[in-house]
Amino acid sequence: MSEASELDEIAREIRSCTRCRLHMNRTNAVPGEGNPKAEVMFIGEAPGENEDLQGRPFVGAAGKVLTEAIENFLGLKRSDVFITNVVKCRPPNNRDPQDDEIMACSPYLDRQIQTIKPKVIVTLGRHSTRYIMEKIGKQFRSILAERGKPIKADLGYGEVVILPTLHPAAGLYNPNLRKYFEEDFRTLAGLLGREKDKDKRPSIFDFLNGSRARGKEGNSDILK
Ligand code: URA
Prior knowledge:
By secondary structure, the chain is α/β, with parallel strands linked by helices. It has eight helices and six strands. α1 runs antiparallel to α4 and α3 packs across α8.
């Protein structure tokens, strides 16, 4: 089966999944989207309100930050990479996904990884970072301790580099954190051999124009 057909099959199973309580309140499950042969895969936390309504990952304000970073720092399009979440259905009121929900959903993520076989996996925030680090036998401390440090790993299909970074919503809530997210995207550009001229690169948070995120994007305690 081709990578695209395998991903379609996984998405079909996710859309009819009842393995955990989160299926009860979903409008749409959010399997993920992008290039079936992507070199880089981004793994977020869980769908928020916009994602639940559209059935697509990272389409709200945090998604705008992620998309701008992919374009400005990597010179890639969203459709060049694969974007998904550790949990595929929206937790009520954007609460944190619970451990049993992550465990119930993780076989889908594992199959997506094994199908795409990315060279680099970027974990966005503590939930996906903790899940992937524990999977490769590493202890997760905190997202601020782990971010920006690439980890070479073997997930069964060859070498992959895991790069933990902050969740893109973190910089919306706390402007002091934006520099870390941007720094990690520079590291990512280096890993992919896609560094660009630093001075020509606009800030990925410029679109905010001084406005503030309003809480639809997940939890403001995103760094816990
Ligand atoms: N936050 C996430 O972690 N994932 C999304 O898809 C959207 C917001």
